[in-house]
Amino acid sequence: NTICRILFGERFSYGDEEYRRILRCLAENFRLESSIAGQLYTILPSLMNHLPGPHQTYFQNNSIIEKFLARKVAEHEATLDSGAPRDFVDAFLCRMKQEKGNPRTAFRRDNMYVTVFDMFMAGTESTSITLRYCLMLLLEHPEVAGGGHGHGCWE
């Protein structure tokens, strides 16, 4: 949700079934990337493309995530106020308009989709891992939660 706030200017309810589905796809893709099938795909992509297996699920999940992100970008385009960007997507769209006549610009639609996809994937996973690690440390060292001030949340 932190990366969603940065990218789209909104947080999703944890009860939102579409958002939960996207999170499941992300989690499954990270698991698949580290599996034997995922590593074989990295080494032999031209061969693995023609073979069935769990690595094919990775592409299906990416398609679901890409459609979700494309819909969010389309919603932003429909409500864009160039004078008041709300978030990263708005800022990128505004810059695309400014750079419209520049054939060498990096502010193109294809780059926007790749950037949003990468930020969403990496930001969601890294934030989640960092928060889990912090909670684990707090559970192992509850004295740190109070910060030595005698009014910690664990007392």
UniProtKB/TrEMBL annotation:
Entry GO MF terms: arachidonate epoxygenase activity; heme binding; iron ion binding; oxidoreductase activity, acting on paired donors, with incorporation or reduction of molecular oxygen, reduced flavin or flavoprotein as one donor, and incorporation of one atom of oxygen
Provide this UniProt record's keywords sorted from A to Z.
Answer: Iron, Metal-binding
Annotated GO biological process: epoxygenase P450 pathway; xenobiotic metabolic process
Cofactors that this protein relies on? heme
Q: Which GO terms describe its cellular component?
A: cytoplasm
Specify the superkingdom. Answer: Eukaryota
User: InterPro entries, from UniProt?
Assistant: Cyt_P450, Cyt_P450_E_grp-I, Cyt_P450_sf, Cytochrome_P450_fam2
Q: Which SUPFAM superfamilies match?
A: Cytochrome P450 (SSF48264)
Keyword NAD in the entry? The reply is no
Gene3D superfamilies the UniProt entry points to = Cytochrome P450
So what family is this one in?
Answer: Belongs to the cytochrome P450 family.
Q: Which PANTHER family match?
A: CYTOCHROME P450 (PTHR24300:SF386), CYTOCHROME P450 508A4-RELATED (PTHR24300)
Q: What name does this protein carry? A: CP2AD protein
Q: Which organism is it from?
A: Haliaeetus albicilla
Q: Name the gene behind this protein.
A: Cyp2a13
